């Protein structure tokens, strides 16, 4: 499984047969980054904010799209689960709801936490526990703060972690750089990659930092 970080919260999973899943696409220019260079067979959108729902950027003619989906579905042999969470600490009253996705495909479980603004319930954590890759926002302000992101990661006990939604050069949003999250990491290898992509099967107990820019 090839995993690519397209900046901000946009991540794609390319399966062995070329089938591609994209989480939370942005349009590039509106947040100061490059437009994601990927086309999706399946798009999963955690919530309808402009920097997470630019579906047209990555869509093909027959792309399947799930927005704020809560429940369970099987799409093209991809098992999708959506769990309700919140974009803030006020039960969604400030910024709305957020969907945490988990996909189960090719023997791997990957969870994308979207714009998680508060710690997920213990019930949700129990269903995510042990995922092969936890994709989690770590930049704070709009989402959980860096120390909270680590606390969530510890509770989920993933095999690997991909931090997202943190400041990189060019991004015009007031969020923290990834180093603020890395200060809290314990028991994981911190792997700085030389590209935006990696093969998930190559890593174990790692915080993976694709190169952006």
Automatic annotation (TrEMBL):
GO terms for molecular function: hydrolase activity. It holds the Pfam family Lactamase_B_3. InterPro entries: RibonucZ/Hydroxyglut_hydro (IPR036866). Keywords: Hydrolase. The keyword Cytoplasm does not apply. Coiled coil: none annotated. PANTHER family: MBL FOLD METALLO-HYDROLASE, METAL DEPENDENT HYDROLASE. This is MBL fold metallo-hydrolase. It comes from Thermosphaera chiliense.
């Amino acid at each position: 499984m090839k995993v690519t970080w397209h900046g901000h919260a946009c991540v794609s999973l390319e399966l062995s047969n070329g089938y591609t899943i994209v989480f939370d696409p942005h349009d590039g220019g509106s947040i100061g980054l490059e437009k994601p260079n990927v086309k999706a067979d399946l798009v999963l959108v955690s919530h309808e904010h402009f920097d997470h729902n630019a579906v047209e950027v990555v869509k093909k003619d027959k792309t399947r799209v799930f927005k704020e989906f809560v429940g369970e579905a099987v799409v093209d042999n991809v098992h999708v689960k959506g769990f309700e969470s919140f974009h803030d600490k006020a039960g969604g009253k400030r910024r709305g709801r957020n969907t945490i996705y988990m996909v189960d495909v090719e023997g791997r479980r990957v969870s994308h936490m979207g714009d998680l603004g508060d710690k997920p319930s213990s019930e949700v954590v129990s269903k995510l526990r042990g995922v092969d890759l936890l994709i989690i926002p770590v930049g704070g302000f709009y989402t959980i703060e860096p120390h909270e992101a680590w606390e969530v990661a510890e509770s989920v006990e993933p095999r690997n972690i991909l931090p997202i939604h943190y400041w990189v050069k060019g991004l015009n949003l007031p969020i923290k750089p990834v180093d603020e999250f890395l200060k809290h990491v314990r028991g994981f290898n911190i792997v700085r990659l030389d590209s935006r992509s990696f093969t998930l099967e190559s890593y174990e107990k790692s915080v993976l930092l694709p190169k952006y820019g």
